[in-house]
């Protein structure tokens, strides 16, 4: 009865595989869509920051506006995700998914109004 030892790399890949399998099987499509948008916003913020550090900061207010818009939109989307998650129904009893999306849309409009005004 020989047992094979798994190295740290195979243990890590097994853990990531089981995490991905559980996520894809148990997460509703609505939350997966919001997660994809959150990933896009995170990637966009990283690219903006890297561009600012590696290439140029000119014009600086444009970088601040774009980065603040990305971070603000990420916060609003994360709030939307937590409100429409079926596991959080006890915490958001009075908030329907439609109301959560309306709050998200109104918050996005206000955020982008301020970002546009900051650009000058």
Automatic annotation (TrEMBL):
Give the bilayer topology. Answer: Multi-pass membrane protein
How this chain assembles, per its entry, is: Component of the oligosaccharyltransferase (OST) complex.
Q: Which sequence ranges are marked TM in the entry?
A: 36-56, 100-119
Q: Does the keyword Membrane apply?
A: yes
Q: Name the pathway it acts in.
A: Protein modification; protein glycosylation
Taxonomic lineage of this organism?
Answer: Eukaryota, Fungi, Dikarya, Basidiomycota, Agaricomycotina
Query: Which superkingdom heads the taxonomic lineage of this protein's source?
Result: Eukaryota
The protein depicted here goes by the name Dolichyl-diphosphooligosaccharide--protein glycosyltransferase subunit OST2
Protein's job? Subunit of the oligosaccharyl transferase (OST) complex that catalyzes the initial transfer of a defined glycan (Glc(3)Man(9)GlcNAc(2) in eukaryotes) from the lipid carrier dolichol-pyrophosphate to an asparagine residue within an Asn-X-Ser/Thr consensus motif in nascent polypeptide chains, the first step in protein N-glycosylation. N-glycosylation occurs cotranslationally and the complex associates with the Sec61 complex at the channel-forming translocon complex that mediates protein translocation across the endoplasmic reticulum (ER). All subunits are required for a maximal enzyme activity.
Which InterPro entries does UniProt cross-reference here? DAD/Ost2 (IPR003038)
Q: Where in the cell is it found?
A: Endoplasmic reticulum membrane
Entry similarity comment: Belongs to the DAD/OST2 family.
The alphabetized UniProt keywords are: Endoplasmic reticulum, Membrane, Transmembrane, Transmembrane helix
Q: Which GO terms describe its biological process?
A: protein N-linked glycosylation
**Which GO CC terms are listed, alphabetically?**
oligosaccharyltransferase complex
């Amino acid at each position: 009865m020989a047992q094979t030892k798994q190295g740290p790399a195979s243990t890590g890949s097994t853990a990531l595989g089981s995490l991905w399998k559980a996520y894809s099987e148990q997460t509703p499509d609505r939350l997966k869509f919001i997660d994809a948008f959150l990933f896009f916003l995170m990637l966009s913020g990283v690219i903006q920051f890297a561009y600012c550090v590696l290439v140029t900061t000119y014009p600086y207010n444009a970088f601040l506006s774009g980065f603040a818009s990305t971070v603000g939109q990420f916060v609003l989307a994360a709030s939307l995700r937590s409100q429409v998650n079926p596991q959080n129904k006890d915490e958001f009893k009075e908030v329907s998914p439609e109301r959560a999306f309306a709050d998200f849309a109104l918050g996005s409009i206000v955020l982008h109004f301020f970002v546009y005004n900051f650009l000058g």
